[in-house]
Amino acid sequence: MTALAPAPVVAAGSAGQGLRTMVRRQLRANRTSTIVMAVLVAIANAVQIQAYTSVFPSAASRDALLLPFASNAGLRVLYGYPFDIGDVTGWVSWRSVSFVGLVLAVWAIMITCGALRGEEDAGRGEITLSQPQPRARWFAAAVCAVAIETAVIGVVSTAAMAVVGVGNHLMSVANSVELGLQVSLPAILFGAIAALACQLWGTVRAARLWAGAVLAVAFGIRAVADTGTGLGWLRWVSPLGWFEELRPPQPPGVVPLVVILGTSAVVVAAALPLLARRDIGLGVLAQSDSRPPRRFLLRTPWQAALRDELPQLATWLVVTMAMTALMGGLIKTVLDLVNQNPVMARVTGAEVGVNAFVAAMFSLIQVIAALLVVTLVAGARGEEATGRLELLLAMPRARLGWLAGRVVLAAGLAALLCLLAALAMWAGAAATGQHVALGALLAATGNSLPVVVVTAGFATAVLGLAPRAVSAGYAVVAVAYLWDALGTALRAPHWTLELSPFHALAQVPLQHVAVTPVLVLCALGLALFGAGAAAFRRRDLAAG
């Protein structure tokens, strides 16, 4: 087996050098996700500034068209309370920053738990602490790295909004800075909560689930506060409500800032004594060393993998279904907007307007499905990296059978996500009294499957050829999706746009299914799978 490389030896008296070394290591480990998140957040916020001026070109149109947005309960659940969306800064804060802040909170939970509890699970934390490095310094390095990465994302987002907003005389530099602060703070707070969870629970999965549960509860309380009558005070009970209380374009309130930063500091301070009192590799909360056998889903390797991924999979499915159900509830609002605009109603009509909305939503669902495929294939890589696959293949098991089972499982679960998202969107529309053809939604689901197939093939090829780079699949999916949007806006050559599978496929149900791109993407995905399987069969297992 491959021996783990020892951590860098740091002189006992060089505390600052040791901290910097560990911070640099964490920054290097998370550089891909940081860059991807910085680009995505910057583009999302800049696009909303441009969209505001395009959709609401005048004050008169703004007053008429914003009313359905402000009064829609589904939008309030998803984005929060629209305090001042008559101003472009308030619009970006409500429409983009609130949702992006939620995404960054999830990102911070993932990377913080990976930097702390993940290092312990892999055994690297114990190796690092065997050197003259105190636990508090190791902990501080992980927290500082997350703070630096969050600051980078905030600065890039601020710069993008300043270029677009200030350059077009839509907002001031101060407004851009305030929005950048609002988008960064959720990552700071929930990164601190994740650091505490890593001390309480003995595995990275348990820590992530616990921190994610805190985020889910905060989201639920905030949703009740924003949709109920006379329940605005509940925002002060939810951390997500604290971010809303910053209320751009007004200057940031001192009270919410003190509450957010103070709570983050208190949570981090509470984690330090817990780290000092527990054993490395264990959590403060006691875990049973034995329990009755549970043989559910243990007959085959792919069933065991499904059982292993069930908690994470449930989160993906529930969150996606909730989001698409809310989006389905917005279809009636879309129709109201179409009907209120005579030009739009004459050009598109109700059916085209609804189909365009559904097609746009399925572009997002395709991205989520592709990211789920990468996540599940990365889980297969984790089984190899931790040595569990070596033990499994010591038994009479074929490599290709194991690989095929994991990849088919990933593709099948991603297809299930697309189907459940379509049904949830249909149910959300029906709940508001709006009819949407179920057949059109199922056609859009089928049109999404080539993205799943080609992503599964690409991830398999990377797993076979460069196993340690499997996580780069997240960046590839993000770039392909962004190129579809940016390339179209920049009027890039048609053949370059076709390189993105999200652009190559037709926008169903707005358009008919394009058979040729479907066949090409499926064939490409199968070819990539074959290449990855052949490489995986020949190479040595790679630990670490």
Automatic annotation (TrEMBL):
<feature type="transmembrane region" description="Helical">
    <location>
        <begin position="472"/>
        <end position="492"/>
    </location>
</feature>
<feature type="transmembrane region" description="Helical">
    <location>
        <begin position="400"/>
        <end position="426"/>
    </location>
</feature>
<keyword id="KW-0472">Membrane</keyword>
<feature type="transmembrane region" description="Helical">
    <location>
        <begin position="138"/>
        <end position="163"/>
    </location>
</feature>
<feature type="transmembrane region" description="Helical">
    <location>
        <begin position="183"/>
        <end position="202"/>
    </location>
</feature>
<keyword id="KW-0812">Transmembrane</keyword>
<feature type="transmembrane region" description="Helical">
    <location>
        <begin position="94"/>
        <end position="117"/>
    </location>
</feature>
<feature type="transmembrane region" description="Helical">
    <location>
        <begin position="512"/>
        <end position="536"/>
    </location>
</feature>
<feature type="transmembrane region" description="Helical">
    <location>
        <begin position="313"/>
        <end position="335"/>
    </location>
</feature>
<feature type="transmembrane region" description="Helical">
    <location>
        <begin position="355"/>
        <end position="379"/>
    </location>
</feature>
<keyword id="KW-1133">Transmembrane helix</keyword>
<feature type="transmembrane region" description="Helical">
    <location>
        <begin position="209"/>
        <end position="234"/>
    </location>
</feature>
<feature type="transmembrane region" description="Helical">
    <location>
        <begin position="438"/>
        <end position="465"/>
    </location>
</feature>
<feature type="transmembrane region" description="Helical">
    <location>
        <begin position="32"/>
        <end position="52"/>
    </location>
</feature>
<feature type="transmembrane region" description="Helical">
    <location>
        <begin position="254"/>
        <end position="275"/>
    </location>
</feature>
<protein>
    <recommendedName>
        <fullName>ABC transporter permease</fullName>
    </recommendedName>
</protein>
